[in-house]
Amino acid sequence: MTGRVSFVGAGPGAADLITLRGAKRIAEADVVVWAPSVVEVECVREHARPDAELVDFSRVSESEVVDVYRRASAGKLKVVRLHAGDPSLWGALREQHETCQRLGLETEVVPGVSAVSAVGASIARELTGSAVAQSLVLTGPEGDEHIAEFAAHGTTMAISASGSRTGRIVERLRAGGYADDTPVVVAYKVSLPDETVAQTTLGELEACVKEHKLYRTTLFLVGEVLKAPASRRSAVGDEPVRRSRPSKWAMRASRGPAPATAESAVESASVAAWSAVHDWQETARARRAAPARPKPDSDDPVLELLTAEAAVPSVDTPAESKPKPTVAAAAKRNPTTVQASTTPRQTAKKPAAPRAKKTKRAD
């Protein structure tokens, strides 16, 4: 058995948007490497063991993180490296993964909900609408110099960049062919209580960013697919409404009293979701924190006596229990059943019938 490093996507920010597998890996971890600035504290506090070592990635160097991986390899530890959103998107996953493999560590990647998906859910828009755009271009902080080339495709774009570069982004989007009335969604700390999600246009983008004082890494969604619909169609049809099958979490949430408001209904469902994973979380924590059974000390006469008594078999216990024959048990249940014999059957000779005496016939 060797150590294991799990690269877990923590989701866009909210603690309850982590996957079940990600929460399970945190509960099993001996060491959790994370950055409180991009991962919600409650996400770690809810799932990590009390004795787990927490390493703030923003306060240590990359070489110190590699030292954590070395300790995991030597001590067969389970390490979780938390990534904001999904590890495969702007997470510097490749270098860390290769480092762990060189150290002989077992590795796995647990996907997470990306910030792009969270923003699309927040504004209730399909980012790849078939009538407008069927593709999505993702570009990170280091790829803003290619924004004009990507914008030439005229499709939906997701740009993760510092808010201080907004003027440069606007210029390159215009150079790529986007008009000033192109819809833009600005998102910061999406899914968190202090999130900022603003809808504007390309011409008003700089003013919007300055108004909300967004200077750190911000997500910009650009494209015609983000335009608000002119009218909403009423869902009227002749097909019968099919009720969905209730899940275990839904049934668990419905056991209590009915919530008074929609907000309390969401909170009740969230509590049910957490309680559904509570059991195996506690099992994982107890398994890792269970103390080793003490070995008997040769100098302790009490332990030696208890060990000796446990080794001596009881008098009442037979040395070897032999299973009863099935046929004999069946015969005991049914008296008319005859037990089979293992000895060869001998055919008994029938006694000869007595001969009838001949009587002399009288003349």
Description:
With 363 residues, the chain is of the alpha/beta class. Among the domains are: 4-113, 3-Layer(aba) Sandwich (Cobalt-precorrin-4 Transmethylase, domain 1), CATH 3.40.1010.10; 116-226, 2-Layer Sandwich (Methyltransferase, Cobalt-precorrin-4 Transmethylase, Domain 2). Helix content is 34%, strand content 15%. It has 12 helices and 10 strands. It has helices spanning 20-28, 41-47, 62-75, 93-102, 115-123, 147-151, 166-175, 205-211, 248-253, 262-289, 301-311, 326-333, and strands spanning 4-9, 31-34, 53-56, 78-83, 106-110, 136-139, 156-162, 183-188, 196-201, 217-222. The strands form 2 sheets. It has a 5-stranded parallel beta sheet, sandwiched between helices. It has a 5-stranded mixed beta sheet with strand order 6-7-10-8-9, with helices on both faces. Helix 1 (20-28) packs parallel to helix 10 (262-289). The longest helix has 28 residues, at 262-289. The relative contact order is 0.10. Mean pLDDT is 76; it is low at 231-244 and 312-348. Pathway: Cofactor biosynthesis; adenosylcobalamin biosynthesis. Belongs to the precorrin methyltransferase family. Residues 231-264, 285-363 are annotated as: Disordered.
